[in-house]
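haha ok so turns out i had the wrong file open the whole time. this is the CORRECT one, sorry everyone. sequence first:
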Amino acid sequence: MTSSHHYKMILSHPEKCLEVHLKNVGEMIYSNLQCLPLAIPFPKELFCEIGKIIGLYHDFGKATSFFQKYLNEQNPDRKAKLKNQKETNHSLLSAVAAYFATELVLNEYKCDNLDSYFLEFLPIASFLAVRRHHTGLEKACDDLRLENKEVLKKQIKHLQTESLSFLPYLNDVFEKLQQIPTSWPLRKIKLLKLLEKNHTILPHLIFYLLYSLLLDSDKHDAALGMFPKRIQVPSTLIEKYRLSKGFDTPRNDIGRLRNKISAEVLAQLENNELLNKHILSFTAPTGSGKTLVVLDFALRLRSCLKEKMGFTPRIIYALPFLSIIDQNAQVLGDVICNFGLETTTDIMLVHHHLSDYSYKTIENEYNPDEGEILIEGWDSEIIITTFIQLFHTLFSNRNRAIRKFNKIAGSIVILDEIQSFPHKYWLLFKETAEQMAKYFNTYFVMVTATQPAIFDKTTELLPNNKDFFSAFNRYQVKTNTAPQNLTDFSQMILRKLRENKKSTLIVLNTINAAKTLYCEIKNEFQSLGFETYFLSSHVIPKIRLQRIKKIMNNREKNKLQLVISTQLVEAGVDIDFDFVVRDLGPFDSVNQVAGRANRNQKSGKAEVEIVCLKDDRDKKFYSYIYDPVMIDITKKIFQGKTEIPESIFLELNRQYFQELKSRMSDDNSKEFLEYLSTLNYEEVGRFQLIDEYDKVDLFVEINDEASQIWQEFVKLHAIVDIRKRKEMFQSLKGVFYQYVISVSKRKAAENLPPEVSGFRFVSYDQIVEYYDFETGFIEKGGYSSW
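then structure:
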């Protein structure tokens, strides 16, 4: 039982006692489960005990002399060799022990109503969580195999059990372990039959929650020793901000409408029944101040839930595009500062793939390693993040992504601009959200002017929204869908704006079409007194953001301007024009772009024109990027309507999404729901919110600041210590990616710059060959969107 290799202290990590680590992780999982508002179909206290057992047993296998010898080895070469030995691996032995310990908990727990299904499933969930707590998830059925029983035999023989005497059920677990080589109760066929009994995603969600809490607790204890303390956030943050800005005394009709919308949404909280409604929608016109209203609602709902239901949810605010994350984060930061609070990370955290790992509280500023754990674990009260981060947590096999799943349970999840969520995953999200609402008390709030038909029924926070859509009379949409080429279109635009000069936004479907039009007409418009701007994803982010700020400032100063853009201005970008033209696209996209016209109702009524553009091969530009069913439904809606007032867009949007739901396939969703219900995580790992094309990143040395950043980046490669190099890059990442664009590798193959330090690099001396200062990357042929 005890080997000849005996150390004074049995360790879990360098200088960390195994007993302390296991007790801490067990207690963390237990206390976190206690705080969650679970409504699972078996006693919560039992679930908490099982979570604690998983924590207590997750590193059980580290008590072998093999692992202790590896951990205490000082010579790097010998240490690496020991690490690669099969006997050093601790996860499988720990998983088997956790399985038996969970069985013993269930045998001891007195509960007449406990479904036999969960009696069988929960030990398997414990086994799988521990088995994979250092790696990504694979097919659960395949994970039940005991690959090398002889190795397990050796490990069991060399367990230093006296160091594990604090573990509950240790003697019984050890007795069962000794029988392993000849008897192992888990079989693939057993799990498959079990999952068939309950062919839903509930077992997956229960397992995911346990796995997530194990990952999160393990990380926090190893690096920090604890979870950070939850803090209170005043529910009146937005109210005080609105008062300080004078929003309570509006000066125009649109300000009064925004106030009425805010008042009606907040009035919903007076109905106690709302707390039992978890799938919520907030459908209001573009430019009606939805961001502040929904945050105000969420903060007050959080306060109500704390007072009446006894739990305090986090607020997770998810947006589809990086371009509007920083914009919304800045607004919320201003709100917090206006209240007299410091915008510390434990109050508000911004998380996306370009986030740095700077994490601070009033008392402490954490080092980058600690900050990474806290930020990647969403340890904050208000998390502002991307759809990609959120949905790749819900549907993933990567432990790094799944670790923060427990923060979604029992939270208020705001999905802003939800219309951009792809239809092929509607059913997948619907089933997941409804199950999380039912069993984990998670609230989902869908926010948009163009509400998709994802759910059969939602509780609308603005039930009389039709009245508000009717009250907004900012623009008239004209449809002109006879195909025309870019040359004819440019002449038409020139004629119109010579006759009646108006600040104009033109949104085209492909980058190349937008570039071609911009180059054809910019000189003419500049001579007419227009300031001209081009926007697309081929323009480096720093310049793109500068242009959007100039466009917004010009509007405030009533300057005449022309902006030619791709779809990146469709949602969330607070720009405002007198005349908007959009190449034909899906109806919701048309609606969103129309929302950039006369946004703040400064003029009488703006004109929005929908055109249909084709290339020199007579191919419509929309056909390069949109599903033909979406275009077909949009054309059907436009049929017979040459002019459409803003007031009827709500009804047209409902028609569009209902028909889209009836005509588009749910096959992708059904496929992933099957993977989740059978715990086939190898296939779940194929989930991608956005179809990834073969793209390549280019760093563009466009100015002196870019040169300095690039030099710092190149210096990092001289750092031998990989950990130190990663830490240094984290501090550089935010500014570094301000000069990076992603382009299609296939379409840019003829014009790709050389690779330097693992990155495609456009030096300042080569810039004319690869990058245009106005239109961005110089692509040779092809049609790119955005």
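The chain has 32 helices and 22 strands.
again sry for the mixup
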